[in-house]
Automatic annotation (TrEMBL):
All copies of domain 7TM-DISM receptor extracellular, residue ranges: 197-416
GO molecular function: DNA binding
Pfam families in the record: 7TMR-DISM_7TM
Protein origin, superkingdom: Bacteria
The protein, known as: 7TM-DISM receptor extracellular domain-containing protein
Biological processes, Gene Ontology terms: regulation of DNA-templated transcription
Record keywords, A-Z: Membrane, Transmembrane, Transmembrane helix
Keyword Transmembrane helix among record annotations: yes
Presence of keyword Acyltransferase: no
Transmembrane intervals: 197-218, 225-245, 271-288, 309-329, 335-355, 367-389, 395-414
Amino acid sequence: MPGFRIVVHSHPLPKPPLVLYRITLIVFFFSLTETVFCQPVLQLPYEGKGKPLSAVVSITNDRGYSITNLTENPDVVFRAAPGQVSSGQNYWLKISVDNPNRLSEDFVVRIIPQFNNTLYYFDPDQRQWLTSQTDAANNDGSRLLGRHPLSFPAQSTSVFFVKLDFSKLGGGDKQIKLDVSFQRADLAAAHEQTVRLAWVCCVIVLLVFIFNNIYIYWSFRDKAVLYYLLAQLGGMIYITSYRWIFNELLPVYIFNVGVHDMITFYDVPRILMHLSILLVLCAITAFTREFLNTKTYLPKTDHLLRSCARAYGVFTLVAILINLAGISIEYYTLAFDNLACCLLIILIMWAASAAYAKKIPFATTFILANGLPFMFILAIPISHLVVALPNEENLWFPELAIITQAFAFSIALVDRTRGIQSALVTARISNQQLEFDLKEAGFQVQLNQLEIDKAIADINTEKVKNDLLQQTLQTNQRELAASALHMVQKNELLSHLKSQLQLLSRPNPSTSQGMRAMSTLIDNSTQLDSDWDKFKIHFEQVHPHFFTELKSRYPALTTRETRLYAYFHMKLSHKEIAALLNIDPASVRRAKTRLFKKMALPETTQE
């Protein structure tokens, strides 16, 4: 295994006979893999003034051992840890770390494969063995799997054990790479902080440019801006999944596990990573086609770009569906996926060069703005092809690609927006000239229309005047009817009084008695039903449905109260009403107060 070196501890022996020496040498080499004196030694990274720490890693097959068996049973034999282990059985690792310094040292140990590992370390304070587990199927929300913090006491040798459990992998017996690495805890914490800070910066930059360009797209409705927004969204999803931030945000669900030279998991963050790559590449391709207008200037290149993007989309989606079905093909398709990404980026750069050679508008701006981002984007799949997965934590191509792409695309969009604005100004001038001609041609039509509208307005005015005259005539007729009613009642009363006075003028001994009868007759004549019926007929000519509505709203009103309210409705004065009812005005006021109180109306209603 790279990084391991074999240390053989020897002891001086008496010189044996030649035959015995050869037999001993043969037995020694045959038993080399089982002896505890041949162990790989790791030099732990150390930058202090003290001595570097060393670690010895050994391994044994698991035969149902417990931690007590490993620490107390001398029959358990560990051998040198090989570079690979078999997925068909479980193992125990024994790691001894020697710290010769006067201060304790804190490290983070990472063990690959990181499938289902349980680390046992002795806690001197609690005087018992404690555990730290890595379970891919039950991640506790950690960003990275397989990392365990450990503290090594000063000037002592610390021993801890790791159980590698492959029982959940199912059948099969494949060789898996075994790797044990150490990193200083302060450096690991600083690197973790750097990764998170870089992710936050990328997300903030993308969000700022997304919101800014949403406004630009809303203003111009340019498809290039829309594709740029989609690329930014895809970049945000990609950097989150690439840095395993989704492990902290989403629940763990593994669709399949691939067992090859290393164990791979196909889970939700992996799906989001593939979909985000597809979104970014397809959006960049569409952005290039729209920005350079390749459909008009480079039709063959445009067709090639569109076909390659669609082919990559089909390839990605089919691979995702097959993996979701439980068939692990990620190990076999990953290299082709990276190659396809490289070819698509190279094709986009070639299309930009062709556009520049033909002096297509905005081609120079496109190349100057996007040359560096495309180089960083191209470096990502190339690094995946040449760099092992555990070492990708130290590569910053995704962050550089996202930052440069966000700024560079914005610069290109600014230049394109200026071009669009210039074209819009030219088109606006032409439209204004055309509008002026159309307005000039339409002025005469408007003038004619104004004359027609004037004539129609005059007709409408005459019609309104006629309607007003008709309403005035009807009002006068109603008032005339009311006045006629009043005159009829007055004339009938006067006629009746005249006849009675003629009778009284005759010599009659019972003159006083007749006068009283006449007074009674005058009082009764003011309340004759026949006269009231005549009044109602004339009144309803002026105020249709008045009595019906009044009766429906106030069914408790008497005939006298109804008559009194009708007089008030006609806005007759108290004196006039008193004359009609043959009572004094004070009685009218009191009657009004009682009536309005009964009807729950304020007295100001009919003032």
